[in-house]
Amino acid sequence: MHKDELKGAAKAAKGAMKQAAGKATGNERLEAEGVAEKTAGKMQKGVGKMKDAARNTLKH
After folding, report:
1. Is residue 34 a contact partner of residue 19, using CB atoms and an 8 Å limit?
2. Which DSSP letter does residue 1 get?
3. How many C-beta atoms surround the C-beta of residue 38 within 10 A?
4. pLDDT value at position 60?
5. Which residues make Cβ contacts (< 8 Å) with residue 10, sequence separation at least 6?
6. What does the pLDDT read at residue 1?
7. What is the pLDDT of residues 8-50, one digit of tens each?
8. What whole-number distance in Å separates Cα of residue 36 and Cα of residue 33?
9. Which residues are CB-contacts of 12 (< 8 A; sequence separation ≥ 6)?
10. Residue 29: CB partners within 8 Å, gap ≥ 6?
């Protein structure tokens, strides 16, 4: 597992919590920040998976 996968998963989880907190409190700005952070985390996790796959392909 590549470190970007772990960092991305953590960022996505943090974003999901911000989004939920924003929705629960009616804070649209916090909710929007959460959505953006969650999306960025998912993208970072995907990049980590691609790096890991490339590394495994080059090993074989």
Report:
1. yes
2. -
3. 19
4. 74
5. 41
6. 80
7. 999 999 999 999 999 999 999 999 999 999 999 999 999 999 9
8. 5
9. 37, 38, 40, 41, 42, 45
10. 22
Pairwise CA distance, residues 60 & 55, whole Å? 9
- Between CA 13 and CA 42 the distance in angstroms is 9
Residues 6 or more apart whose CB falls under 8 angstroms from that of 11 comprise 37, 38, 40, 41, 44
**Distances, alpha carbon 43 to alpha carbons 27, 36, 37, in Å:** 25, 11, 10
User: How is residue 10 written in tokens?
Assistant: 């953590």
